[in-house]
Write a structure and sequence with these properties.
- By secondary structure, this protein is an alpha/beta fold.
- It has one domain: Response regulator (Rossmann fold, 3-Layer(aba) Sandwich), CATH 3.40.50.2300.
- It is built from five helices and four strands.
- It has a four-stranded parallel sheet, with helices on both faces.
C-alpha cells in the first residue's frame, strides 16, 4: 500500500506549514502509523526559500518535545500536484495561490486546515500576530480533524 501523502502549505514555509508538518508527523507516529503517511510542507512564495523554521515555531514545538531540525523552507511547484493526495493551506490566500500554481484543482485535493473542524476559517499567521500559542492550538485542532477525515476516506489504513 502506498502511503497517504499530505503537503501543508503557507506563504513562507517557516511558521504555520512546518508547524503543521511536524505536529502531524508526531500525531501519526504516536499512533504507530508513520509508515502510512508521507508528510511535508512548502511555501507558495519564494521569499523564504532555504531559510530555517521561524524561532517562534521552533520554540513552541520544542516545548512539546518536537524537533524541526533539518527543515528549510521550500517552494511549491506545479509538478507537486501529482505527488500528493492532500494539499492543506492555512488561509484563503494559500488556497488561491495553490490553485494558481497548479492551474486549478481538478482532483479536489486542496483544502484549508480548519475546514476539518466545526468552525472553519483561517489560521492566523504568527509572523504578523506574534501569537504562536494561538497558531499551535488552531493547527492542533485542524490536524485532529484532518486525521479523522483521512481515516474515514481511506479504509485500508
Amino acid at each position: 500500500m502506498r502511503p497517504i501523502s499530505v503537503l501543508f502549505v503557507c506563504y513562507g514555509n517557516i511558521c504555520r506549514s512546518p508547524m503543521a508538518e511536524f505536529l502531524f508527523k508526531e500525531y501519526v507516529k504516536r499512533r504507530g502509523m508513520q509508515n502510512d503517511f508521507l508528510i511535508n510542507s512548502a511555501a507558495t512564495s519564494g521569499e523564504e526559500t532555504g531559510n530555517p523554521v521561524h524561532y517562534g515555531t521552533v520554540a513552541i514545538l520544542k516545548k512539546h518535545g518536537i524537533s524541526t531540525e533539518g527543515k528549510y523552507a521550500i517552494r511549491l511547484k506545479k509538478e507537486d500536484y501529482t505527488k500528493y493526495d492532500y494539499f492543506i493551506g492555512m488561509d484563503d490566500a494559500n488556497i488561491r495561490n495553490m490553485e494558481q500554481i497548479f492551474g486549478g484543482d481538478p482532483g479536489q485535493k486542496i483544502f484549508r486546515l480548519l475546514d476539518f473542524t466545526d468552525r472553519g476559517g483561517a489560521i492566523a499567521d504568527p509572523w504578523y500576530s506574534g501569537d504562536f500559542e494561538a497558531t499551535y492550538r488552531d493547527v492542533t485542532e485542524g490536524i485532529d480533524g484532518l486525521f479523522v477525515h483521512i481515516m474515514a476516506h481511506n479504509a485500508e489504513l
